[in-house]
Specification:
The chain has 2 helices and 11 strands; from the N terminus they run αββββαβββββββ. It is an alpha+beta fold. It folds into 2 domains: 34 residues; 163 residues, Proaerolysin, Chain A, domain 3 (Beta Complex), CATH 2.170.15. A 5-stranded antiparallel sheet has the order 2-6-9-10-11, with no helix packed on it. The chain has a 4-stranded antiparallel sheet with strand order 1-7-8-4, covered by helices on one side. A two-stranded antiparallel ribbon has the order 3-5. β10 and β11 form a beta hairpin. It is rod-shaped and about 80 Å long.
Length: 203
């Protein structure tokens, strides 16, 4: 009789153990399919690099003249409004980009074009062109993946930002009374706005 009772107890214990193991396995399996909590992605500025000064191409501004008498000269004094240029895929907001760079990337910048010509002969004319100078930056953006309190860096993307300087380079092309170009002068704008002659070519 005692042997039967012990055998029965062992069977009950084994059955309970199998049920417990099965229940634990069921819990483990279901925990594996629970979705991560607090998952989201956000783009941020990772780094910036100043590349130096880059130059645009010369653009036509105006024509001055003809001169009414020998020894006359002309001066150009104009301003053009130019926006900051952004090349490449931008994933952060423009306000975040501006904060990282230290200047606004929205709105226009007034660029001054001011220069006096050389002395002319009667009937001569001048064609005026300008060229933008840009402070140029590379900005690296990174996608941050936030998952269960952890931050994982994902893909990156780079944009190039061109911020126009307040003063533009100037090129004068001189035309004789017959309308033939005979001279070009190119002036580079310094930080204080002064223009210095850097190239002169007879045509």
């Amino acid at each position: 009789m005692m042997k039967k009772i012990l055998s029965l107890v062992m069977v009950v214990v084994m059955v309970m153990g199998m049920c417990t193991t099965g229940f634990a396995n069921e819990l483990n399996t279901s925990s594996e399919i629970v979705q991560p909590r607090g998952y989201y992605e956000v783009w941020k500025v990772k780094s910036k690099t100043f590349l130096g000064t880059t130059y645009g191409s010369y653009k036509y501004l105006t024509t001055l003249g003809p001169a009414d008498a020998d020894g006359e000269s002309f001066s150009v004094s104009q301003s053009v409004n130019v926006g900051v240029s952004i090349n490449g895929p931008l994933y952060v907001s423009k306000s975040a980009l501006g904060t990282a760079l230290g200047f606004s990337v929205t709105g226009d910048i007034g660029v001054s074009i001011t220069k006096n010509s050389r002395l002319l002969s009667k009937g001569e004319m001048i064609e005026v062109e300008y060229r933008l100078k840009n402070d140029t930056y590379n900005v690296t953006q990174v996608k941050e993946i936030h998952m269960d309190g952890q931050i994982i860096e994902g893909e990156t993307a780079t944009v190039t930002v061109f911020r126009p300087n307040a003063f533009a380079d100037v090129r004068f092309t001189y035309y004789s009374i017959g309308g033939k170009a005979y001279l070009t002068q190119e002036f580079e704008a310094l930080e204080n706005g002064e223009l210095v002659l850097v190239r002169e070519v007879s045509l």
